């Protein structure tokens, strides 16, 4: 509805002016009818504010009470109440009804002047009053239209805020799932490999401790190496959380040693951290698989930083495999690289080694 404090202010002004005009002998005010009419208007406003009653009935009752108050007021101020008619009509029935009610109010004033005063249009005061009422009605319709539009925009804004909150909750949920998947890949790609390898080597050392002490010692040395590598992976993961500390070229160089040769070209500066960490995990997975499963005598890692892409190639001369038979490691690698807009290509067949190519556009 309209601003709730406006009608009570008008009612108070009409009551004050009417009683003063009657007491000062300036007009024919009927106090009982004036007070009763204004009190009933307050009651109608309360009923409407609580959402009770028929809108048509309440509108008709309110207009009838306006007529009663105008008739009982000797000051003439009560005519200002008719400015509320198009406002109430706009909120209750819409723009067309508001304009129609304003025209009806003007027509009623013209008829009243014609009945009470012959040749009323020659009376400057009456013509001026009619023009002022007309301007007031026009202003009232304009303000009502602005209020309705403001209310409509507020409803749309609240609905938009509700949608944004729903989207934010959905994004948070998806982010949680994505982070969970990322942690699963990190555990598998890093710690999972090395800890599994360490456990197997320690079991071998225990099995050969009596029958082949030399083999047991070699197994313990390899287990020690795997544990060190696991610790290095943890350090690299921590560094990856700090962009200023993580360098992909340095991390990949740490994968070298033994049968693994490393070749790095180009400048990694300017490439996003998510791309660098994803490529490092792919290199780590490729080298670990070649060491553990391929039985390779030579493993080559080539990392190239170019303005248009970051390219990683891990090649070995091991036993090879059927690429379609991929486990979680290769699946996780593909998912990780896909998240940064890259792709993974595996070229391998039994007995012919493996070539893993990772490319991420800049």
- H-E order: HHHHHHHHEHEEHEE
SSE-based structural type: alpha+beta
Q: Determine Rg (CA atoms, Å).
A: 43 Å
Percentage beta strand: 5-15%
Give the % helix: 55-70%
Mean pLDDT: 82
Shape: rod-shaped
> So how many helices?
10
| Strands ordered across the widest β-sheet | 1-2-3-5-4
How many domain modules?
Answer: 2
Point out poorly predicted stretches.
none
The end-to-end span amounts to: 57 Å
Number of beta strands? 5
Largest sheet: 5 strands, mixed
Could you characterize the architecture of this molecule?
- Helix 2 runs antiparallel to helix 3, helix 6 packs antiparallel against helix 7 and helix 6 packs antiparallel against helix 10.
- The mean pLDDT is 82.
- Strands 1-2-3-5-4 form a five-stranded mixed beta sheet.
- With 362 residues, it is of the alpha+beta class.
- The protein has ten helices and five strands.
- 66% of the residues lie in helices and 10% in strands.
- The protein has two domains: 158 residues; 106 residues, 2-Layer Sandwich (Heat Shock Protein 90), CATH 3.30.565.10.
- It is an enzyme of class 2 (transferase).
- It catalyses: ATP + protein L-histidine = ADP + protein N-phospho-L-histidine.
- This is Oxygen sensor histidine kinase NreB.
């Amino acid at each position: 509805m309209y601003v709730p404090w406006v009608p009570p202010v008008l009612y108070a002004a009409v009551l004050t002016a009417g009683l003063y005009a009657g007491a000062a002998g300036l007009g024919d005010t009927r106090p009982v009818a004036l007070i009763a009419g204004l009190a009933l208007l307050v009651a109608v406003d309360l009923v409407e504010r609580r959402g009770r009653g028929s809108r048509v009935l309440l509108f008709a009752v309110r207009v009838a009470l306006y007529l009663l108050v105008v008739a009982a007021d000797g000051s003439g101020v009560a005519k200002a109440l008719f400015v509320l008619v198009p406002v109430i009509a706009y909120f209750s029935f819409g723009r067309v009804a508001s304009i129609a009610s304003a025209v009806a109010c003007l027509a009623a004033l013209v008829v009243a002047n014609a009945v009470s005063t012959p040749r009323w249009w020659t009376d400057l005061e009456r013509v001026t009053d009619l023009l002022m009422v007309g301007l007031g009605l026009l202003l009232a319709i304009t303000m009502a239209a602005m209020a309705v539009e403001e209310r409509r925009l507020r409803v749309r804004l609240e609905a938009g805020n509700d949608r944004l909150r729903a989207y934010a909750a959905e994004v948070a949920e998806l982010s949680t799932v994505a982070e969970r998947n990322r942690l699963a890949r990190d555990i598998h790609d890093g710690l999972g490999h090395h800890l599994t390898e360490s456990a197997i080597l320690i079991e071998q050392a225990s099995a050969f401790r009596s029958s082949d002490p030399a083999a047991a010692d070699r197994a313990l040395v390899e287990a020690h190496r795997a544990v060190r590598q696991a610790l290095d992976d943890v350090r690299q993961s921590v560094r990856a959380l700090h962009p200023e500390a993580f360098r992909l070229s340095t991390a990949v160089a740490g994968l070298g040693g033994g049968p693994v040769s490393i070749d790095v070209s180009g400048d990694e500066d300017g490439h996003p951290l998510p791309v660098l960490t994803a490529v490092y995990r792919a290199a780590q997975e490729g080298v670990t698989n070649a060491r553990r499963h391929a039985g390779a005598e030579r493993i080559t890692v080539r990392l190239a930083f170019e303005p248009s892409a970051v390219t990683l190639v891990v090649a070995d001369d091991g036993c090879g495999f059927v690429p379609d038979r991929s486990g979680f490691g290769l699946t996780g690698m593909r998912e990780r690289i896909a998240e940064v807009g890259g792709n993974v290509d595996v070229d391998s067949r039994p007995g012919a080694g493996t070539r893993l190519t990772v490319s991420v556009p800049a």
